[in-house]
Amino acid sequence: MKYTVNNVDYFVRDDADVSVIFVKDTAQRFMLNKSGMAIFQSILDNNDTDDVLDIYTEKYPQVSNDILLQDINDIYNIMNIFDMVSEVDRGPIDSLYGIEALNEDDYKIASDFIKSNLRPDCLLPSMNGKYYTAQNIRFLIMTDKEYFYCNKSDGEIDMLVSINPNVGNINVINVVTVAFKSDLSDDYKVSLFESILEHIKKNMVKPVTKFRISILSEKNCLDQIKFLSLFKSVGFELEAELEKETEKESLFIFSKKI
Fold first, then answer.
1. CB 214 within 8 A of CB 174
2. Distance (Å, rounded) from C-alpha 186 to C-alpha 256?
3. Partners of 3 in the beta sheet?
4. Which range marks the domain in which residue 78 is found?
5. What is the per-residue DSSP string for 238-256?
6. What pLDDT digit, counting tens, does each position of 179-229 carry?
7. Do 89 and 1 contact (CB within 8 A), yes or no?
8. 197 and 211 Cβ atoms separated by less than 8 Å
9. Exposure pattern of 145-157 as b/e (b: 16+ CB <10 Å)?
């Protein structure tokens, strides 16, 4: 895969066993061990992951190419998340279908997808876009704060859903984000959302009894919330209203029982 190295200002602090890379523009950081740091430098010194693989194939002939390539891709993906490299040519993409959890290859793609679909008919905790940087998506997933699921067709995302996982003794899952392409038909959109919720339910460690969303709104404005029609179409119903959670708004809780 060909890539370009971006002009990102950073500095490295070497500790005993790891190196910490600080990205100055975003005030963010990530850590690499000695092997990871060597790959990091090799990626900076080249513009094709195949060339980097050749270096490490020669250096470690006893290690399989698959393992070496996985290590290289892992470091590349981290650098890509922090905008240190940009893909030029991935090569042919296999036709991908189905629902799956986001992995490290998808953080940047998911970020771009959500940012291109910041519309009022999507459920979004922030219309700013900064909430959905690839770095923040990675942080949310790695700290178990949010899990992201998407449906792909022909290698592209059609719909993406994020949830707060049910931890401890909680059997209720809060839906945080629902973003989708603007050209999806209503029937397909509803069917897809139902399928993703079913996939999430089956893949949680604890049993799921209910999906839930919470909305801050003035009562007379509730009917104007565009994304609510999608949730009502798959069985979400108003469960509770907490009046005057803020000076002007009440908190409305919609739930879908399993």
1. yes
2. 19
3. 87
4. 2-89
5. EEEEETTSSSS-EEEEEEE
6. 999 999 999 999 999 999 999 998 887 889 999 999 988 888 888 899 999
7. yes
8. yes
9. ebbbbbbbeeeeb
| 244 shares a domain with 117 | yes
What is the pTM (predicted TM-score) of this model? 0.72
- Element of type H or E holding 4: strand 2-5
Distance CA 197, CA 203 (A): 10
The alpha-helical segments, DSSP class H, found in 19-168 are: 34-44, 49-59, 65-81, 107-115, 134-142
Residue showing tokens 């500790």? 15
Domain check: are 10 and 48 in the same one?
yes
| Mean per-residue pLDDT, 49-62 | 91
> In this structure, are 248 and 127 located in the same domain?
yes
What pLDDT, on a 0 to 100 scale, did the predictor assign at position 93? Answer: 40
pLDDT value at residue 89: 61
Per-residue pLDDT reduced to its tens digit, 69-125: 989 988 998 888 888 998 886 554 443 458 889 887 789 889 999 999 999 999 988
**The total number of structural domains that make up the chain:** 2
CA–CA distance, 103 with 96 (Å, rounded to integer):
14
- Of 174, 240, 254, 251, nearest to 216 (Cα)? 251
The CATH number given to whatever domain includes residue 139 is: 3.40.630.30
